[in-house]
## 1
Amino acid sequence: MKAALSSRPMTDRLAPTAPGLRAQAYANLHRHMWKLLALLACANAGLLAYLGAGAPKPWAEIDWMDVAGEGGSALFALVWFAMLLKARPAGRVTNLLALGLGCIFFSLWMDVLDEFIALPDAWVWDNWLESGPMPLGWLTVTIGLYHWHQEQLAINAQMEKRESLFREHRLFDALTPLARADYLRRQLDMALAQSRRDRQPLSLVAVDLDGFGAINRRYGPEEGDAVLLAVSQLLLLNLRAQDLLCRLAGDRFVVLLPHTGEAQAWRMADELRASVRHLAHRTREHGERLHLRAAVSVVMAVRESGEELLDRLNHSFLADGEPVPALA
Amino acid sequence: MPPRYYERDTSFIPAHDQPSTLLDLMLGRRIDADRALRGSGLFYDDILTGRRSISPQQYLALVDNARRLLPGEDGSFLFGQRIWPGHYGAASQALRHAATVRDALDLLARRHALLSPLATPRLWRDDRYVWLYWTDGCGAAPQWRFLAEAACAGVVALCREISGQRLPWEFFFRHERPRHVEQYWVHLGRELRFAQPLDLMRLPRHCELQACPVALPTVAQVAAQQSEEQAQALGADASFLDRVYDHLRERVCEAPSLEQVAQAFGVSPATLKRKLGKHGTGFQEQYDQVRMHVALQLFLVRGCNNEQVADYLHFHDAANFRRSFKRWTGHAPSALRPALEGAGNRA
C-alpha cells in the first residue's frame, strides 16, 4: 500500500499543508541528528568519567529530593533541546540555541550523577563539569535569543501584507500562504475601531475568479490549487505595505484597505482585476496557458460591524460574475 | 420477493466510486491513507481492486474522517463539487448530457441509490419553483451537515456545468448560521437562510427548463435507461428509511400505525422497531418528519391554510396542528411561511 501511495504525484506540491509540515518537522529532526548524538555522547562520557573516578553511593545515602529536582530540570532541558531541533531549520540561530541548551542539560546531568556516585575529594574536575557549562549555556542561549529576535524581524518583513497587528498560526490557510476568514474578521474589527478613532475611511475589496470550477474539472484540483497560489502571490505584489490580503473561501480573496476611500478602492480593485487578466499562468502538466478572469467588488465601511460589512461585500457580487438568467 | 431496499449495513456502494472521490480529496490534502480509512474497515488495496462494495455505514465512517481531518472549513463543499456527474457509468452519462436541468434533477432523485446513497434528494414542483430537499436515508446524524453541504454544493456545481451558467438557487438549512458562512457565500450563493425546518433548495421553474448547451438528448435518454439496469444490478433503489418515508407519505391521510406499517413491510412490529433503531430513529420521529414535510408542501406548493392542513393530516383542529407543528420545527406555521414563501430576501 505504501508503494501505491508514494507513487502518487504529490511530492512536488507547492504549499506544504499541515501534514506536510509535520513530515518536514521529522526531516528537521533527522538533519539535526548529529547534534543530538553529540549531546548523548557527552552525557555518556561524563557518566564514564565519574564511574572511572568514583564509586556508586550506597542506597541509603542518596538524597531523592535532589535527584527529583535536578533530574527533572535535566529532563526538561533535554525536551526543550529536542523540540527546538524538531521545530527549526538548521542555521546559526538554531546552532546557538542548541549549544546553549546542550550545555545546560550537560551541567544538570552531571549534577544528577553526582547524587549517585561518590567521588574522591582529591578529584576537583567534578565541580568544573557541574558548574562550568551552566553559565556558558545561559550566555549562549541569550545570544541565540537575541539573534532569533533579529531573524523574526526579517520574517515579519516577509509576512508584510499577509499579516498585521497580531499573530495566530491556527488561522493560517492550509493551501495558500494567506490567512483565513476568521483572521480577517478579527483584523477587520480592529481596523474598523482604528479607522473610527482616526476618522479615516476603510474599504474592502473582494476578488473572485471566474470559471475556477471549470479549471478544477478540466485540469484537476491540483492545478486549481496551483492557480490559487499563483493568484495569491500576484495579488500580494499589487498591494501596499499596509494592506492585508486573506483568502475568504474557495476562489474568493478579500483585501482590507485601511485609510482608503471608495474611489481609490475601486481604482485598486480594477488594477487587481487587470493583473489577474494579464497573468500568464501555465499548467504544470503541459505548460498550457490559462486565461484567468476575476470579478471584483468594493465596499466602504459606514457605521456597521465587520460581519455586516463582509456580508454586504459578498452580496454585492452577482453570482460568479455571470449574468443571472432574467425572469421569464 | 427480496426486499428492494438497502440498510445501513448492506454492502452495495462501489468503493471506487463516490467513496474514492472523498478519499482522493483527503489524499490530495496530504492526509495519510491509513488515517483517512480508519474505522471504515477498508484498505487502500481493496479499493484499488475495483470490486469492493461497502455499506452506508462504512461510507459514513469515511465521511466522518473527512469531516474531522480535512483542513479548513471547505471540505464538504469541495467534495460536493466533485461528486456529480461523476464516473458512475450510465447514470453519470445521463446526468452529464441531460437535455435540461429538470431532467438531471429528476434522474438524481430517481437513481439516488447510485448517485447519492446517503442523502436522499426529493423534489416538489409548483408553478413558480422547483423545490429540492434532502432527507437522511441512512441515519447519518453526526455527519448530516457535511452531507447536506456536499449535496447542495454538488447540485450547484452540476447545474452550472450542464447549463453553462450559475443558476439562482436559494438555500434553506436546518442548522444555525455557521461561523464560516463565507464558505456558503462562495460555494453556494448569496440567498441563504438558516434554522429552517428542512434542508431545502429551490430554483425558479423557468431556469430548470432552459436547454443545456452540452446536452446530447438521445445519449442521455439511452444512458438513463441503462442506469435502470445498473440500479437493478445494485439490488435496491432506495434505503430502508426512504421506503418507510414513502410508505408513510402515501398513507399520511390514514394516520398509519406502527403495526400497519410493519405488516406492509412483511415484518413483525418488533423487527420494524429494531430496524428503525439501527438507523438511529424511531417510528414516531419518522412519522412526525413526514407530517411536517407534507404540511410544508401543502403550505408552500398548494397554498393551503392551517385548517385545511390540519384536516388533511387528521388533526382534531387547527390549534392542535399548530401546537404539533411548533414541536416539529420550533416555529409556528405563521412564523415560517413568510420566510419560505418570500422570494429574493435573505437571512
Note: The interface with chain B takes residues 1, 4-5, 8, 10, 13, 17-20, 173-175, 180-182, 208, 213-214, 216-217, 221-222, 248-252, 310, 314-315, 317, 319-320, 322-325, 327-328 of chain A (CB under 8 Å).
## 2
Amino acid sequence: MKDGALWEHSRHWLNLRPVYAFGEWVLDSMPLFIGYGLTWGVTEVAYHASPNQRAGIEANVRHVLRTLEPSMSEEERERKIRGLVYRIFHNRGVWFADLSLLAGRRQVSGLFSFDRSGNWKALERQLATGKGAIVASAHLGNWHGGGFAMALSGVPVRVVMYRNHAGDVMDRKVAQRAKVKQTYIDSDPMAMMEIMKALNSGEVLAMLVDKPWDSRSVSVPFFGRPAPFPMGPVRLARLAGVPIFPAFCVWKRPREYVAILCDPIEVRGADGEEAERSALAALAKVIETQVAANLPVWFNFTPAWSPP
Amino acid sequence: MDSSDADLRTRVKTMIVQCARLKIQPAELKDDWPLFDKEKGLGLDSIDVLELVVNVEKTFGVQIPDRETGQKVLQSVNTIVEHLKASGKTS
C-alpha cells in the first residue's frame, strides 16, 4: 500500500525501534525532569542534524504564513519561520516524552489532564444509533493522547493505521493501556472487513488523514493550494454510512491537553465521488483551521503541497 | 457452463470492473485471476475490498460478514460465484 516516497522521507536516525525503546525506558524509569531534560538535548541535536525534516517543516510553515499573514515582509517571515521550526522540533520532543509516559508504567491520572472541547454530544448521538463513526485527526498535537482520552471516557476506539518505522511498538503499548483496539491496513487488504465490522458494531475508528500514504489520494484546497489527502477515510464513511468527526488533541501547557471534537462531516450525495471530494475538502478546511491555530505543534515533516 | 452460470459470471465481472474502476472490459477478466495479486492478478487494494463487499450485498443480497469469509470469497471471480451459488441468491 505504501507507494514509497512518503515512507522513505519519514526515515530518520531517531525513528528507530532501539531509540524509541531507550527513550521510553529513560522516561519511564527516571525522574521526569531528567527524562524531559534528556529529551530536550536529543531534540536539540535532532534539530541541527535533520536537514531534510527541517526543510520539510520550513516549506510547510512558509506556505501557511504566506497565506495567513500575506502583508508580512519576507525578512520578518523568514525570521518567524526559523523560530517556529525550532519550536516545532522541541515540541515534537515533548510529544515523544509524553507518548513515552502514556506507554509506560506511570499512573496517568494526575500526570496528564485531558479537557474536552467541541461537539462531543454529536458523537454520543451517533453512537446511540448503534453504528460507529470515524474520528479523523492530523499530525497536530498529540493524536495518541486524543485516542487515549476518548477511550478512557468509555468510547470504544479502534485505531486504523499503517505500520511505521519505529513508533508502532509504542503505539501498541499506549493502545493496550487505554484498551484501544488496533487494525493495521498496510499488509492485508482484508483488514478492511474488520474495519467495516467494527463500524457496524458501534466502534469509533480513529485515523490520521493528513498524509496520503498510497496512491489513493485526491487533491483539495489546503491553505489556498491543492494538497493531496487520502480518499480512503471518506470512501469508508460513504460506504458504511457513518459521519466523520475531525478531532485534535493539542496541549496548552506540558501534559495538559484539550481534546477537540469538531462537528461531523457527512459523506452523502447522488454522485458518490463528488460527495467524497466535497467531504474531503471540508475535512481539509477543518484541519487548516486547527493548524493555523496551533502551528507550533504541527508535526508534518514532509512537504504537504508537493510529495517528497 | 450453462447460460445462468455464464450470466452470473458476467454480472460478477461487471461488478468488479465497476467497483475497482478497472480500465478493461468485463469479458477480459479471467475467472481465476487472483483479485489482490499485484503481479499475477488485478492488484486490488483495501478500498476495493470495501467496494466489493458493499456491492456484493447491494447487487446480490449476499453478505460477506467477516474477514475470514472475505479471505475465502474475494479471491477470484470463481470464488465469488461459488459463494453466491452456495447462498442460493444468484438472481
Note: Chain A has a mean pLDDT of 89.
## 3
Amino acid sequence: MAAVALARPHAIPDVSLRRLMADDPTMTTAGLIMLTLLLPMAVAGWLDPRMLDGEGIWVKPMKFSVSIAMFLLTLAAFARHIPEVTRHHWLFRGFALAAALAAVLEILWIGGAATLGVRSHFNESSALAGTIYGIMGLVAILLTSASLVYGLAIWRNANTDLRPAMRLAIVMGLLLTFGLTLLTAGTLAGRGALIGLPDTGAVIPILGWSLEVGDLRVSHFFATHLLQIIPLIVWLTAWTSPRAALGTSLALALFTLGTYAQALAGLPFLPLG
Amino acid sequence: MVDAHTLFSWGDPLVLVGWAALILSPLAPVWADRIAGFIIPAILSLAYTGLILAFWSGAPGGFDSLENVMALFTDPYIALAGWLHFLAFDLFVGAWIVRQARAAAIPHLLTVPILVPAFLFAPAGYLAFITLRAIWSLRTPAAQEA
C-alpha cells in the first residue's frame, strides 16, 4: 500500500489569476504590475544603446521584475494555505500591502536608475545616492520578510488540505528563502557581486553570472527561488514522505550555501571561462 | 539596435490599419473599436513609453519654455516619441468619435468625412465632430435618447 501512496501525485493546484486574486489580491496585483512593467522595459531594452557593466542597461531591471513577479505570484498561490481569519486580519493585510509596495518601490528605483543611466545598487556617487541605496536595502528586507511571514503562517496552520510532505516543502521553501536571501543578498550588498578580477568578462547568457571569478549573485538567485524550487521538486517527484521533503530542503539549502562559499572563495559557479 | 527612421516608417502603416477599420466600422463595429480604440493605441503607447525610458534622460531641453520644447524635439528619438504620441492619441480620438456617432445615431456617411481632418489635424477633426453632434441633436431630438 505504501508504494501506491508514493505513486499518487500531489494535486495539480489551481493557479488561475482569478483564484490568486481571490486569495491574495495584494500580492497578485503587485505581481501583475511587475509583469506589466516588463513590456515597456523590453521595448526600452530593445532600443536603448546604453550599457552598464558590459550588459544592456535594461537587463538588470528586467531580471529583477521577472524575479520579483515570480516571488509575489508564488506567495499569492501559497496564500490559500493561510487561514482566512489570518489573511483578513488588519495586521496581515497591512503587512502584505507594505511588502507589495516595497516590491513596486524596488522596481521603480532600479528602473528609474536605468532610465537615468546611473547605478542603482552600489551607488555611492553622492550622499543622496548613498542614502537611497541604504534605504533600498531596508525596503528589500521588508519585501523578503513576506516569505518569512507566509512561511510561519502556513506552518502554524494545521488545517491545510495539503499532504504533510507538500506542506513541509512549502514552509521550508519560504523560510529558507527568507534566511538564505538575507545572508546572500546581505553579503552581496556589502562586498559587491564579483569576488576576484575578471579577465575576459565572460558570463553565462541571460543570468549574467561570471564564468571566471566568484559571483555572489549565484547563491542569491538560488536562495531567492527556493520557495519555488523545493515545492516544485516534491510535486514533480510525487514524494509524499515528509522526510523526503525535509531532505530535499536541506540538500538545496546546502547546495545554496555551497554556491555561496564557492563565490566567497573566488571560484566561478561554472568554470568555463 | 533599431534606427529611429526605421521605427518611424512602421508608424504610418500601423495607424492606417486603424483608420481603415474606423471607416469600415459598420461592417464590424466591435472589432473596429477594439483595433482602433484599444490595440493599436496600446502598441504605440508601449513604443512611446519604451522610447521615453531609453532616451528621455539624455535629451536636451524640457517642458518649461517654447525654446526648451523645441530643443527637446531636436533629439530624433524624442521627436519620434512625440510623433507616436500624435499617432496613438489621434487614432484614439478617432475611435471615440465613431463610438459617439453610433451612440447618437449619426449616419456613418456623415462621420466618415470628419475622420479625414481627425486623421490629418486631429484637434480640428474633434471640433468638427462636436459641432456636428450638436447640430444633429438639434435636428433630431429622438437621437438624444438613443
Note: Chain B touches chain A through 16 residues (CB under 8 Å).
